[in-house]
From TrEMBL:
Homodimer. Pathway: One-carbon metabolism; tetrahydrofolate interconversion. GO terms for cellular component: cytosol. It comes from the Bacteria. It catalyses: (6R)-5,10-methenyltetrahydrofolate + H2O = (6R)-10-formyltetrahydrofolate + H(+); (6R)-5,10-methylene-5,6,7,8-tetrahydrofolate + NADP(+) = (6R)-5,10-methenyltetrahydrofolate + NADPH. Pfam families: THF_DHG_CYH, THF_DHG_CYH_C. PROSITE patterns: THF_DHG_CYH_2 (PS00767). GO terms for molecular function: methenyltetrahydrofolate cyclohydrolase activity; methylenetetrahydrofolate dehydrogenase (NADP+) activity. This is Bifunctional protein FolD. It comes from Meiothermus granaticius NBRC 107808. Its EC number is 1.5.1.5, 3.5.4.9. Belongs to the tetrahydrofolate dehydrogenase/cyclohydrolase family. NADP(+) binds at G160, R161, S162, I226. Keywords: Amino-acid biosynthesis, Histidine biosynthesis, Hydrolase, Methionine biosynthesis, Multifunctional enzyme, NADP, One-carbon metabolism, Oxidoreductase, Purine biosynthesis. The lineage of its organism: Bacteria, Thermotogati, Deinococcota, Deinococci, Thermales.
Length: 282
């Protein structure tokens, strides 16, 4: 069984990005907006900011209290959209209940939407037009490409239909000539649908949902799930995927959790930032 580790792929992309940034006459600028003090968001934003600076990007985090009104937040996002020095804008999710994340996305400048989630970029992706693409599914595609796994002509099943992963990944797989089934919680006999897959992607957020009986022998299995299931003796989060560990005995290749798709999400975010800057500034 082949392990499809994310860090070597992310590092290769960071090297590419550093070279591209060094060749520019300006420094692309990423702006991350965080609302509140959700521990996971604080940690994730810190990681994005640190990695952006490490490869030579300019990065700034704007932090708002959880009490900020939606109107105030939208006003700030509009100002960033109008600022010629800002190349990429990311609003960290989740936002507090009184702030509609979908409304936030509709007010983001599409050409600076480095999360690739605005309605405009979503439409561009499905129409096959140049777009800033959602980071996690783009990371999945880059991972498969790095390890020489083609999806052309193959039957691919994606379990999960979120706007963040499942739906955009289906569009990317179709563009790469895969035959795609998008399965979800209402799919009857999920196991038999999954067993058809030559490439199986789990992106639901349910620990151990995919068991060995649901996997076609020799299939490539991509585990996008990151589920916190407690803490170890050092107080660190214990993370597991949507795929049960025993699937390793059936699959020909498998992404680990942690250390699989996760590192690719940040790498693709920074790739989108560089891409957005070059499209805007040349």
């Amino acid at each position: 069984m082949r392990l499809l580790a994310g860090p070597p792929v992310a590092e290769a992309l960071y090297s590419e990005l550093q070279a591209r940034i060094a060749a520019l006459l300006y420094t692309p600028h990423l702006r991350v907006v965080r609302v509140g003090e959700d521990p996971a968001s604080v940690s994730y934003v810190r990681l994005k900011d640190r990695q952006a600076k490490k490869i030579g990007l300019s990065s700034q985090v704007d932090v708002f209290p959880e009490s900020v009104s939606q109107a105030e937040l939208l006003e700030h996002i509009a100002a960033l959209g109008a600022d010629p020095e800002v190349d990429g804008i990311l609003v960290q999710s989740p936002t507090p209940p009184h702030i509609s994340f979908n409304t936030v996305l509709q007010h983001l400048e599409p050409d600076k939407d480095v999360d690739g989630l605005t309605p405009v970029n979503t439409g561009r992706l499905w129409m096959g037009l140049p777009a800033l693409e959602p980071c996690t599914p783009a990371g999945v595609m880059r991972l498969l490409q790095h390890y020489g796994i083609s999806v052309a002509g193959k039957e691919v099943v994606v379990v999960g239909r979120s706007n963040l992963v499942g739906k955009p990944l289906a569009a990317m797989l179709l563009r790469s000539n895969a035959t795609v089934t998008l399965a979800h919680s209402r799919t009857p006999d999920l196991g038999s649908v999954c067993r058809r897959a030559e490439v199986l992607v789990a992106a639901v957020g349910k620990p151990g949902l995919i068991t060995p009986e649901m996997v076609r022998p020799g299939a490539v299995v991509v585990d996008v799930g990151i589920n916190r299931v407690g803490q170890n003796e050092k107080g660190r989060d214990l993370l597991v995927g949507d795929v049960a560990p025993a699937v390793a005995e059936v699959a020909s290749a498998l992404t680990p959790v942690p250390g699989g798709v996760g590192p690719m999400t940040v790498a693709m975010l920074l790739s989108n930032t560089v891409q957005a800057a070059i499209r805007r500034r040349g």
